[in-house]
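lol so apparently i was supposed to do this last week
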Amino acid sequence: NINIADTLKHLHIDGINEACSTGSNWASSANAEVRAITSPVDGKIIAQVKMATAADYDKVVQQAQKAFINWRTLPAPKRGDIVRQIGDALRQNKQHLGTLVSYEMGKSLQEGLGEVQEMIDICDFAVGLSRQLHGLTMHSERPLHRMYEQYHPLGVVGIISAFNFPVAVWSWNAMLAWVCGDVCIWKPSEKTPLTAIACQHIAQAVCTANGVEEGVSCLLIGDSKIGELMANDSRLPLISATGSTRMGKAVGAAVGARLGRSLLELGGNNAIIITENADLDMALIGAVFGAVGTAGQRCTTTRRLIIHDSVYEAFKQKLVKAYAQIRIGNPLDENNHMGPLIDQEAVNSYLAAIDACKAVGGNFVVEGGRLQGEAYASGCYVRPCIAEVENHYKIVQHETFAPILYLMRYKTLEEAIALQNGVPQGLSSAIMTNNLREAETFLSVAGSDCGIANVNIGTSGAEIGGAFGGEKETGGGRESGSDAWKVYMRRQTNTINYSTSLPLAQGIKFDL
Ligand code: NAD
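anyway here it is w/ nicotinamide-adenine-dinucleotide bound
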């Protein structure tokens, strides 16, 4: 019973949408390319967008630089109050925005609403943070001297985001960056620009009501070409980029070449170790939700299960039974567990991964494939599948962004941890066990090498209060909670001499 036309109208999505916004001003170049945005849910065109050009890009950066000069002087708690109001505006728009996330990206309505809730939560977190952007004071070795550190805003922060969390990733970055005194330029995924346009309208209404200058919240609709301009632009001291490891290597190299700062949130290859001491019913829920939720298109999706020999067969049977009950279809229908993949290209890489897995000896205990029929007219719906594999297979070492779950068995915990760590990525990991020694070993220095390590919780999903991110090819960045805010600021150490002489550090004498 969801009326998409109503949702689009409510969120100010037009038939053809402009390429860039510095706040209230929306514009495009006369020669802008126009692209149609199609829903993976039903294959229909939702709306069209114009693509930003290099000239548009430059204008946006100039306006953002201008806005930074004033925004940085607004006291942080006042900036926090604006973020609080953005959180309230998101609360009011939750149903419509969640619906558009689901329709444009293909995740279930519940997950779409959950994503908007995550945005609301990070606003709340950022409001509190706006009164806690503090550094330390240190004791000086020199008499009548004071030494302390403070955090200042960085400037224009570039945010490049992926299609699978089309709005939450922006909020994780922007809400923190804003309370820190930075201004933001967001380039969303070219696959999901409409939800971004909706967010820009929501944030801008609050900015306008508060007299916030044009340029604090900027949006650029574009593909990797705009992303490359951002990565190479020394006017942007920080680039926060979320997406594939391939993208992260390109962005990291470009930002590194100009000695800028990058925050990289890249692919995962997440595993759950299921020990002989696991509660298998609990493990089943964690594994199945982790593997099929968002149709396997979360960076924290469970891709591998490392199962103890003694419970392997029993757990495999449970999984096969559970997979038979998964309902696939329109994600806006709450009866369905799993919606479509983002596009046909994603379906093709899913099918290619299945072929590659079979070619090296992978044994499919639940078969995959593309779903046909009227309910699947977009051509983006697939079956979640399960294969018994060996960890060293090239395809298992690679993140395929689709619902393919790999099973492998182990005998000792050391072996299980080696398998868990034996991939290039290092985002999320989990162990299912009621045994304290196993749990603590997994969390110890000799345990998981990932940025996220859970006990008796799956790999998928995270709370905003913790720092989010991973190691190795996942890029090393951390965003959201804990002290992740520090990356959006520059640290300054200050020493103040209130004596009548000038003693030098390390006791050095310099008499004139
Ligand atoms: P993608 O790499 O294709 O695109 C991500 C973004 O990067 C898009 O906005 C794209 O336009 C831009 N981009 C691509 N190439 C670029 C380049 N050379 N320079 C600058 N920008 C460039 O990824 P995707 O398919 O949208 O998203 C899926 C991937 O994102 C998966 O690998 C997933 O694991 C990862 N992801 C990671 C996290 C995390 O927090 N670690 C979160 C969500 C998604």
